[in-house]
Amino acid sequence: MALLDTFRQRLHERGRARPGDAPAPSESPSPSLRRSFGIYLLLLSLPLLVLLPLLAYNGSLLYVLGEQARESTERELRAANSALSASIQRELDRTIETLSLVAATPAMDANGIDTDRMRHLMAEVVRANLGILSLALLDRDGRVLVEVPDLGAPQGRLVTLGADKHQVFETGRPDGWTLAR
Fold first, then answer.
1. What is the model's pLDDT at position 70?
2. Are 172 and 178 in contact (CB under 8 A)?
3. What is the chain's mean pLDDT, rounded?
4. At 93, is the secondary structure helix, strand, or coil?
5. Structural Rg of the chain based on CA atoms
6. Which element (helix H / strand E) includes 147?
7. Closest by Cα among 105, 115, 110, 101 to 148
8. Cα separation of 132 and 7, whole Å?
């Protein structure tokens, strides 16, 4: 609005129009008015010329930082996954080794099972806190021969065995795993 008033005032001063008259369409504004209008336009566009590259730079910087943070998080997750996998594998290997040692004990020989000696060995394994909370020794028919800790259930009770458990007795391998190495 102020620009239009300035334009009218300058035209009036030159005597080309009366106050309040609009310039004729064929008349062109004076060079000084065009120069002042160009300066105003440049002054108005200066903040945009300064801010747009700055905003573009900030946007690209935020994108790069976000990608680096994502990659760093992925690396940390892979490392944690790898460490957890190794820890679980160590636990499984230790448990399999412990159970293999229990299975290879002289308390079980061709003459039969020394239940007292076997109970003592199994109690030591459970007390060692290796992640094994209870152990039970079953015969091929599913009868409990020795159980640690003793839960008060009658000795010789029958436990129903599924097909996968019968496979262990027949092959010595649960689902393709070898218990004795």
1. 97
2. yes
3. 76
4. helix
5. 45
6. strand 144-148
7. 115
8. 95
Amino acid at 102: V
pLDDT higher for 127 or 83?
Answer: 83
Task: Taking each helix axis as running N to C, give the angle between helix 115-127 and helix 31-103, from 0 to 180 degrees, rounded to the nearest 10.
Answer: 160
What is the pTM for the complete model shown? 0.50
Tens digits of residue pLDDT in 49-97: 888 999 999 999 999 999 999 999 999 999 999 999 999 998 888 888 8
pLDDT at 22 exceeding the cut of 80: no
Q: State how far the Cα of 157 lies from the Cα of 163, in Å rounded to an integer.
A: 19
CB atoms within 10 A of CB 147: 19
d(CA 127, CA 114): 20
Residue 30 CA from chain centroid, whole number: 69
